[in-house]
Amino acid sequence: MLKFGVLLALVAPCFCKHLEPAFVSGVPSVRGGRPGSSRLLATATSVKPSVYEEFGVTDVLNAKPFSLPPLPWDPMSLGGISKETIAYHYGKHHATYVRKLNGIAKEKPEIAAMSLEDVVKKSDGAVFNNAAQIWNHNFYWNCLKPNGGGTPTGPIAQKINEAFGSFEAFKEQFSARAAGHFGSGWVWLVQGADGKLNIVDGHDAANPVRDGGDKPVMVIDVWEHAYYIDFRNARPNYINAFFDSINWDFVNSQLA
Amino acid sequence: MSFLSSVPCAMADGDFYKLPDLPYDYGALEPSIDATTMQLHHDKHHATYVKKLNDALKEKKPRATNLADLQAEAMKLGSTVRNNGGGAYNHALFWRMMAPVGKGGEPSEALQKAINAVWGSKEGFQEAFSKAATAVFGSGWAWLIVKKGGLEITTTPNQDNNLMISGSGIPILGIDVWEHAYYLKYNNRRPDYVKEWWKVVNWSEVNNNYENYALKGIPVPA
């Protein structure tokens, strides 16, 4: 408990800088990982405990060694992505990955002693799949916010213009990659070691953290469970809804 | 002129393959698979695979003249043909491998004997198959295949199937575990979907796939 308190005090100010006061997000960063839980330190005062009870995840929020992070926003208020989707996506899929990884950690103490990021970097098979999916979803929820979207401002806007020519060109390319990804996976906006932005596809649970090099800056989940309830097979409509909900403050905060 | 004379009728209008109709109404597999899913799955997903395959094959000329034979070339013809050719084939079989509850019959004596040889019983086979289908991570299929005269359970990612890799077996039964196959009714509960799917397995078709095609080393036609 003391360790947690110290952790909070050390990390919270860094992550607060670019974010709304509504939540503190200790998003797993590529540089440095700490042992123990999944590092999401959000207090998320805008989300009532009753939401977590309704979703059946109160136990997983407090689980060890890996826990489900609180949502950074109230699922009632998130644009074209419905509460029902969040109830399943966060409350079932994301929560189940956490439960599964904790189940694995029970059998393998070496996993229990690692940070989530280290598990992602060093594991394979089912261990990797569950850990990476936790990491990916942790990151994804932070990329969204109620009344988000629009044209970005700040460093990300400049970087987008440098890499893609314009925001419109970026949106077109990113959307095409997201629509065109075959099967399950994620489409990432990353910042390379040279500081430039790039778009990368990851299949199933694959993410840039695994290989290092690229720093994740934004992600869209294109597993069908992310959009089937709200958009059926029409993934492009989901991608538009995603763009209408992007948390550009968070994206800015992820730039090196 | 000699080229035209070797082109089968299906290519005359430019399309390699025509989307087959469902063998039954959208609601025929209720309650195991809901009507809305069947409609979306066939009219949108399957139809899109067929369209994209036909478009791709206007550029690339395969040696195969039918969809079943195309599978063996799919990996060489690029990812669009692989993904959509696989999708078109897998789904063409999938609809026929299902029948309304109570109409699917049972494994034939020959098939049951082959099942027992590997899994001891029909229940043993179902348990092993269900486990494999549930364990697929991401999008894919679980299959019962015939390989070197014997039965095996395999899983494939995305829209791949065993016909794509020479010698790796001939599928006679398969379950689609892409989320679009079950999400509207079952959400994340894939094990429930798999359990209900057994009620609509069309064993008559599987028997036919086994005896008239796979045992003879021939892929099941699409």
From TrEMBL, chain A:
Alphabetic keyword roster: Iron, Metal-binding, Oxidoreductase, Signal
First and last residue of the signal peptide: 1-16
Domain called Manganese/iron superoxide dismutase C-terminal: residue spans: 152-253
A Gene Ontology term for the protein's cellular component: cytoplasm
Record has Nucleotide-binding as a keyword: no
Catalysis performed (reactions): 2 superoxide + 2 H(+) = H2O2 + O2
Coiled coil start-end: none
Domain Manganese/iron superoxide dismutase N-terminal: 66-144
Catalytic activity, EC: 1.15.1.1
Requisite cofactors: Fe cation
GO molecular function: metal ion binding; superoxide dismutase activity
InterPro entries: Mn/Fe_SOD, Mn/Fe_SOD_BS, Mn/Fe_SOD_C, Mn/Fe_SOD_N, Mn/Fe_SOD_N_sf, SOD_C_sf
Functional summary from the UniProt entry: Destroys radicals which are normally produced within the cells and which are toxic to biological systems.
Subunit-level organization: Homodimer.
Family in the record: Belongs to the iron/manganese superoxide dismutase family.
Protein name: Superoxide dismutase
UniProt source species: Vitrella brassicaformis (strain CCMP3155)
Phylogenetic placement of the source organism: Eukaryota, Sar, Alveolata, Colpodellida, Vitrellaceae
Automatic annotation (TrEMBL), chain B:
InterPro entries, A to Z: Mn/Fe_SOD, Mn/Fe_SOD_BS, Mn/Fe_SOD_C, Mn/Fe_SOD_N, Mn/Fe_SOD_N_sf, SOD_C_sf
Cellular component, GO annotation: cytoplasm
Family designation: Belongs to the iron/manganese superoxide dismutase family.
Protein name: Superoxide dismutase
EC number(s) reported in the record: 1.15.1.1
Catalytic activity: 2 superoxide + 2 H(+) = H2O2 + O2
Record: residues binding Mn(2+): H41, H91, D176, H180
Enzyme class: oxidoreductase
Entry's Gene Ontology molecular function annotations: metal ion binding; superoxide dismutase activity
Domain Manganese/iron superoxide dismutase C-terminal: 107-208
Origin species: Vitrella brassicaformis (strain CCMP3155)
Record's keyword terms, sorted: Iron, Metal-binding, Oxidoreductase
Record's function text: Destroys radicals which are normally produced within the cells and which are toxic to biological systems.
Residue ranges constituting the Manganese/iron superoxide dismutase N-terminal domain according to the UniProt record: 17-99
Cofactor: Fe cation
